Amino acid sequence: MSNNNNASVVEIAQTAGQFSSSIVLQTENKYIDVKSILGLFTTLVSHKSYELHVHGSDAEEAKQAMIDVFTKHGLNVTVVAD
Asked: Where does the HPr domain lie (predicted)?
């Protein structure tokens, strides 16, 4: 795994940790808590696309922050409206 990918995993987890909302990344049949660095390390690769599920009191702010950080690192993410 490259240093760039390491940096993206850390930044994504740190950004998610700023919110009280539940933030879950879905890829294929896996669901990963975005606040879990270990879960991200085992799942996150730039050539996949991901769905992001965000629920909680600050969900709107969390969704925008997560879109921003995923985009910054060139990761394809779609926020799912539940």
From this structure: 11-71
Backbone φ and ψ for 57, nearest 5 degrees, come out as: -70, -25
pTM of the model: 0.86
Determine how β-strand 49-55 pairs with β-strand 76-79.
parallel
Copy the structure tokens of residue 64.
Answer: 């925008």
What 3-state DSSP class applies to 32?
A: strand
Tokens of 51: 């769905």
What residues make up the domain containing 36? 3-79
Give the count of domains, the chain.
Answer: 1
pLDDT surpasses 50 at 49: yes
* Cα gap 25→28, rounded to integer Å: 10
